[in-house]
Write a structure and sequence with these properties.
Elements lengths: L1 H43 L2 H7 L18 H32 L5 E10 L6 E8 L6 E10 L3 E8 L4 E22 L6 E20 L10 H16 L6 E4 L14 E11 L12 E6 L8 E2 L10 E10 L6 E8 L7 E9 L9 E6 L15 E10 L18 H10 L16 E4 L2 E11 L12 E7 L5 E3 L10 E10 L6 E10 L2 E11 L1 H6 L1 E7 L7 E10 L2 E4 L1
Antiparallel strand pairs: 1-4, 2-3, 3-5, 4-5, 5-6, 6-7, 8-11, 8-15, 9-10, 9-12, 12-13, 14-15, 16-25, 17-20, 17-24, 18-19, 18-21, 21-22, 23-24
Helix pairs in contact: 3-4
Length: about 575
């Protein structure tokens, strides 16, 4: 009996083991198949697929997804033919670059020319290529290049004192992206009429200056002046949107030349919460703005002394040559007097993000570097109003004046809106005496109420009132005091006669009234652009310089435009 029972138990256990083993193998096989399918899917996955699966913040800051194909074959052939390229291109580059160097020659020099120019024996390396789809009858190719050159470049420099110095440009290191445009496409070999080439992006450009047989540092300011000249010459002659055109087939290729396509109107309003660069006191900030970093086209604001929340309210105009790729750069510096200014932070706005004919109000966060944004430290914010007006495009506004009248693009929009008209005309720059519009009118401001104000008094309340000031005319009004309230209601209206609405602004300061003084609670700053464009509006504005709180306002504009001769 025991034998039979043991036999049955053994069979049952054996069968159970066999079933478990079979199921385990089937499960392992199924997992291996699923893993193989997953690996195969990852092998087929593109960069765009990975971006869809993982959000941008999941990738480390040093990881870059390149969309360019490798060019090992091109680098091998370029290395072979480089000696011939050096001989053919050196004289051509020397002839074309010398006039640009002369154009940007420092005033301390009487002559700046090449005495020797060779590209060296080390060929550049192309690290990638991509095709840009722009929907036109052209082929646009971008080549990424790295070059650690051993070029032999010697500049013959002469000063007004008759001193001649041979300066060697050595240790050149360059990384950038070149753009080639084959346009127009034709039905005749080689199937395109001309080639445009330009430096689309300059990631790095390093070089060393050395006086042959001497030390360039013995002449104060000479090294910086020559380096600035070289960089300005590169920026002006070949940096996109500037380009060089090489005709391949006979024809008129004037449409490929660099031409202005519009104007960018910029109002630098203010900055807030700037990083303090001074040990004693506060920074003395000023702003530098540009679309192309050329000395003649860069704008510099006034210096606001000892203030981390400066108000500029300054208006600038920039020429735009390519709204799809260009951007406005704002750099905020701390003025150090006779010493070099220290960068507080910088920001940029891509012009393709602007809607033509529409004013865009933006607050931009300042960063340490626009190319490598690893430093996330808060450096403050800058406030801008932007308006892009393309030439020759009907975009909803009309210039009501004849061709011999002149206004800035922003003035044209404001004046057109005030008259109820609806289109802007392209207007070429004219140098003779013209008329300019002054946006004059009456600004009606109703201070409705405030909400969630910060506690100032020891009893947990405040006695708030608002002081309204027009910055340019310094006209001032104030509301009544509302006692013991963090959510006061005023409903008071004040009228201001504004002589130049385009360049004036309204400042509202909130104060806590005390028997023996007053405590500052915060402020709001408004330009008049929106109320001039819309006629009237109601809005809630957050208090600056306060932990909480906002002010509810209603603004109305009654225009009285006048003209002046300039």
């Amino acid at each position: 009996m025991g034998f039979v029972f043991g036999l049955v138990i053994g069979l049952v256990v054996g069968l159970a083991i066999i079933v478990f083993f079979v199921r385990s193998e089937n499960s392992r096989s199924k997992r291996r198949n699923e893993l193989a399918t997953t690996v195969a899917a990852f092998a087929r996955m593109t960069v765009e697929d990975s971006r869809k699966i993982l959000p941008a913040q999941s990738y480390p800051s040093w990881l870059v997804f390149s969309q360019r194909q490798k060019l090992t074959w091109l680098n091998q052939h370029l290395t072979k033919i480089w000696p011939y390229v050096d001989q053919a291109a050196s004289d051509l580059i020397k002839t074309s670059v010398e006039p640009v160097l002369e154009q940007y020659r420092p005033i301390i020099l009487s002559s700046l020319k090449f005495s020797k120019f060779t590209l060296g024996t080390v060929a550049p390396q192309f690290t990638g290529v991509s095709i840009v789809e722009d929907g036109t009858d052209s082929v646009t190719m971008e080549l990424e290049m790295q070059w650690d050159a051993n070029s032999s470049i010697i500049l013959d420099i002469k000063t007004y004192l008759g001193v001649s110095l041979p300066v060697q440009v050595k240790d050149i290191g360059f990384t950038g992206v070149f753009r080639l445009i084959f346009k127009p496409l034709v039905n005749e070999l080689p199937c395109f009429g001309a080639v445009c080439f330009s430096l689309r992006q300059k990631k790095k450009l390093d070089f060393t200056l050395k006086v042959i047989g001497g030390d360039i540092s013995n002449i104060p300011g000479l090294s910086d002046a020559i380096e600035s000249t070289i960089r300005d010459a590169i920026e002006d002659s070949i940096m996109w949107p500037a380009r060089k055109i090489i005709p391949i087939l006979p024809g008129d290729y004037s449409d490929l030349e660099l031409k202005p396509v519009g104007m960018l109107e910029v109002k630098l309003v203010q900055a807030r919460d700037l990083t303090n660069k001074d040990i004693i006191g506060k920074s003395d900030p000023y702003a530098v703005l540009y679309v192309r970093p050329l000395p003649a086209r860069m704008k510099k604001s006034k210096i606001i002394n000892n203030d981390l929340n400066p108000i500029w309210n300054e208006h600038y105009e920039f020429v735009v040559e390519d709204a799809t790729t260009q951007h406005l750069v704002v750099r905020i510096y701390d003025d150090e007097g006779l010493q070099a200014s220290e960068l507080i932070g910088c920001a940029q706005v891509h012009l393709r993000e602007l809607e033509p004919g529409k004013v865009k109000d933006v607050w931009l966060n300042l960063v340490k570097d626009l190319e490598i944004q690893r430093d996330t430290k808060c450096r403050g914010q800058v406030h801008l109003e932007l308006l892009y007006c393309p030439f020759g495009v009907e975009n909803g506004f009309t210039n009501p004046f004849s061709s011999n009248s002149s206004m800035t693009s922003l003035e044209r929009v404001l004046k057109s809106t005030a008259n109820g008209t609806d289109a802007i005309q392209n207007e070429k720059a004219v140098t003779q005496k013209k008329k300019e519009v002054i946006i004059r009118g009456v600004l009606s401001v109703t201070v409705i109420s405030a909400e969630d104000l910060p506690v100032v008094d020891l009893m947990g309340k405040a006695d708030p009132y608002v002081v309204l000031t027009m910055k340019k005319s310094e006209a001032r009004n104030k509301t009544r005091v509302v006692n013991d309230s963090l959510n006061p209601v005023w409903n008071q209206t004040f009228d201001f006669v504004v002589e130049d609405g385009l360049h004036d602004m309204l400042i509202l300061e909130l104060w806590d009234h005390d028997t023996f003084g007053k405590d500052y609670m915060g402020r709001c700053i408004l330009t008049l652009t929106r109320v001039i464009l819309e006629g009237e509006y109601t809005d809630s504005l957050q208090l600056e310089g306060a932990k909480s709180g906002k002010i509810n306002l209603h603004l109305k504009w009654l225009p009285q435009p006048i003209f002046r001769d300039s």
